[in-house]
Amino acid sequence: MTARNFQDHLNPKLTPKRILALDGGGLRGVLTVAFLKRIEDILRQRAGGDPRFRLSDYYDLIGGTSTGSIIAAGLSLGMSVDEIRDHYFELGNKVFKPGFFSLSILSQQYNTEKIATALKTVFNKRTLESNDFKTGLLIMAKRLNTESP
After folding, report:
1. CB contact at 8 A, 53 and 43
2. What Rg do the C-alpha atoms of the chain give, in angstroms?
3. At what angle do helices 112-123 and 81-95 cross, to 10 degrees?
Protein backbone atom coordinates (compact mmCIF):
# COMPACT_ATOMS: atom_id res chain seq x y z
CA MET A 1 0.00 0.00 0.00
CA THR A 2 1.44 3.35 -1.06
CA ALA A 3 0.60 6.51 0.85
CA ARG A 4 -1.01 9.23 -1.23
CA ASN A 5 -0.04 12.89 -1.09
CA PHE A 6 -2.50 15.80 -1.30
CA GLN A 7 -2.38 16.00 -5.10
CA ASP A 8 -2.92 12.24 -5.41
CA HIS A 9 -5.96 12.47 -3.14
CA LEU A 10 -7.51 15.11 -5.39
CA ASN A 11 -6.54 13.49 -8.71
CA PRO A 12 -9.77 12.12 -10.26
CA LYS A 13 -7.76 9.58 -12.30
CA LEU A 14 -6.49 7.81 -9.18
CA THR A 15 -9.25 5.44 -8.17
CA PRO A 16 -10.83 4.01 -6.19
CA LYS A 17 -11.33 6.97 -3.90
CA ARG A 18 -11.25 6.21 -0.20
CA ILE A 19 -13.67 8.16 1.97
CA LEU A 20 -13.91 8.22 5.76
CA ALA A 21 -17.19 9.63 7.16
CA LEU A 22 -17.51 10.47 10.86
CA ASP A 23 -20.73 11.14 12.74
CA GLY A 24 -21.44 13.60 15.51
CA GLY A 25 -22.51 13.15 19.08
CA GLY A 26 -20.56 15.41 21.41
CA LEU A 27 -18.37 13.51 23.85
CA ARG A 28 -19.53 10.22 22.34
CA GLY A 29 -16.85 10.99 19.75
CA VAL A 30 -14.45 9.17 22.07
CA LEU A 31 -15.95 5.96 20.67
CA THR A 32 -15.20 7.15 17.15
CA VAL A 33 -11.62 7.92 18.17
CA ALA A 34 -11.23 4.42 19.65
CA PHE A 35 -12.36 2.83 16.38
CA LEU A 36 -10.09 5.16 14.40
CA LYS A 37 -7.11 4.15 16.53
CA ARG A 38 -7.62 0.52 15.57
CA ILE A 39 -8.08 1.42 11.88
CA GLU A 40 -4.92 3.55 11.94
CA ASP A 41 -2.96 0.71 13.55
CA ILE A 42 -4.13 -1.82 10.93
CA LEU A 43 -3.42 0.50 7.99
CA ARG A 44 -0.03 1.46 9.45
CA GLN A 45 0.95 -2.23 9.57
CA ARG A 46 -0.22 -2.71 5.96
CA ALA A 47 1.91 0.30 4.98
CA GLY A 48 5.03 -1.28 6.47
CA GLY A 49 4.78 -0.13 10.09
CA ASP A 50 6.11 3.41 9.58
CA PRO A 51 5.28 5.35 12.79
CA ARG A 52 4.79 8.49 10.65
CA PHE A 53 1.79 6.89 8.87
CA ARG A 54 -1.46 8.81 9.33
CA LEU A 55 -5.02 8.19 8.17
CA SER A 56 -4.60 11.21 5.88
CA ASP A 57 -2.04 9.14 3.93
CA TYR A 58 -4.73 6.60 3.08
CA TYR A 59 -8.09 8.41 2.83
CA ASP A 60 -8.76 10.75 -0.08
CA LEU A 61 -11.58 12.56 1.70
CA ILE A 62 -12.33 12.72 5.41
CA GLY A 63 -15.64 14.23 6.39
CA GLY A 64 -17.77 14.67 9.44
CA THR A 65 -20.61 16.43 11.09
CA SER A 66 -20.58 18.11 14.50
CA THR A 67 -17.91 16.49 16.67
CA GLY A 68 -17.04 14.26 13.69
CA SER A 69 -16.02 17.37 11.75
CA ILE A 70 -13.59 18.35 14.50
CA ILE A 71 -12.01 14.90 14.35
CA ALA A 72 -12.05 14.96 10.53
CA ALA A 73 -10.29 18.34 10.47
CA GLY A 74 -7.49 17.05 12.68
CA LEU A 75 -7.09 13.89 10.60
CA SER A 76 -7.06 15.82 7.32
CA LEU A 77 -4.25 18.00 8.69
CA GLY A 78 -2.17 14.90 9.29
CA MET A 79 -2.64 14.51 13.02
CA SER A 80 -2.35 11.01 14.44
CA VAL A 81 -5.35 9.50 16.18
CA ASP A 82 -3.40 9.68 19.46
CA GLU A 83 -2.92 13.44 18.99
CA ILE A 84 -6.60 13.89 18.24
CA ARG A 85 -7.59 11.81 21.26
CA ASP A 86 -5.45 14.00 23.51
CA HIS A 87 -6.91 17.21 22.04
CA TYR A 88 -10.39 15.73 22.25
CA PHE A 89 -10.16 14.98 25.96
CA GLU A 90 -8.75 18.45 26.58
CA LEU A 91 -11.58 19.96 24.53
CA GLY A 92 -14.16 17.90 26.41
CA ASN A 93 -12.83 19.05 29.78
CA LYS A 94 -12.97 22.71 28.72
CA VAL A 95 -16.24 22.74 26.79
CA PHE A 96 -18.76 20.12 27.84
CA LYS A 97 -20.56 20.19 31.15
CA PRO A 98 -19.19 17.74 33.73
CA GLY A 99 -20.70 14.33 34.24
CA PHE A 100 -19.83 12.15 31.25
CA PHE A 101 -22.03 9.36 32.59
CA SER A 102 -24.86 11.61 33.69
CA LEU A 103 -28.00 12.34 31.72
CA SER A 104 -26.15 15.14 29.91
CA ILE A 105 -24.64 12.49 27.65
CA LEU A 106 -28.05 12.17 26.00
CA SER A 107 -28.19 15.84 25.04
CA GLN A 108 -24.82 17.55 25.18
CA GLN A 109 -24.68 21.11 26.42
CA TYR A 110 -21.73 23.32 25.61
CA ASN A 111 -20.72 26.95 25.47
CA THR A 112 -20.03 28.11 21.91
CA GLU A 113 -17.45 30.68 23.03
CA LYS A 114 -15.53 28.03 24.95
CA ILE A 115 -15.59 25.62 22.02
CA ALA A 116 -14.38 28.33 19.63
CA THR A 117 -11.51 29.23 21.94
CA ALA A 118 -10.55 25.58 22.45
CA LEU A 119 -10.61 24.86 18.72
CA LYS A 120 -8.44 27.88 17.97
CA THR A 121 -5.77 26.48 20.28
CA VAL A 122 -5.70 23.28 18.18
CA PHE A 123 -6.21 24.65 14.67
CA ASN A 124 -4.78 28.16 15.13
CA LYS A 125 -5.76 30.50 12.28
CA ARG A 126 -6.12 27.79 9.65
CA THR A 127 -8.96 28.08 7.17
CA LEU A 128 -10.25 25.66 4.57
CA GLU A 129 -7.86 27.38 2.15
CA SER A 130 -4.78 26.56 4.26
CA ASN A 131 -1.96 24.79 2.46
CA ASP A 132 -1.19 22.29 5.19
CA PHE A 133 -4.07 19.88 4.58
CA LYS A 134 -2.87 16.39 3.72
CA THR A 135 -6.16 15.17 2.24
CA GLY A 136 -9.61 16.41 1.30
CA LEU A 137 -11.88 17.63 4.10
CA LEU A 138 -15.66 17.82 4.12
CA ILE A 139 -17.49 19.49 6.97
CA MET A 140 -21.24 18.95 7.08
CA ALA A 141 -23.19 21.80 8.59
CA LYS A 142 -26.84 22.81 8.80
CA ARG A 143 -28.45 26.20 8.72
CA LEU A 144 -30.11 26.84 12.06
CA ASN A 145 -33.00 28.79 10.56
CA THR A 146 -34.00 26.24 7.89
CA GLU A 147 -32.24 23.08 9.09
CA SER A 148 -31.05 22.57 5.51
CA PRO A 149 -27.51 21.34 4.72
Report:
1. yes
2. 16
3. 150
CA distances in angstroms from 126 to 129, 130, 133, listed in the order given: 8, 6, 10
Give the pLDDT confidence of 70-102 residue by residue, as tens digits: 899 999 999 999 999 998 878 777 776 555 545
- Cis peptide leading into residue 16 (ω within 30°): yes
| Sequence-ordered list of residues with C-beta below 8 angstroms from that of 117, at least 6 positions apart, any chain | 94
- 28-51 pLDDT, tens per residue? 788 899 999 999 999 999 999 999
CA 107 from centre of chain: 21
Determine the Cα–Cα distance for residues 79 and 75; give it in Å rounded to an integer: 5
Instruction: Name residue 20's beta-bridge partners.
Output: 62
Q: Enter the pTM of the model.
A: 0.81
**Whole-angstrom distance, CA of residue 71 vs CA of residue 126:** 15
| Long-range pairs, 112-121, Cβ under 8 A, ≥24 | 115/91, 118/90, 118/91, 118/94, 119/70, 119/91
Contact between 23 and 29 (Cβ < 8 Å): no
The CA-based diameter of the chain, rounded to the nearest angstrom, is 49
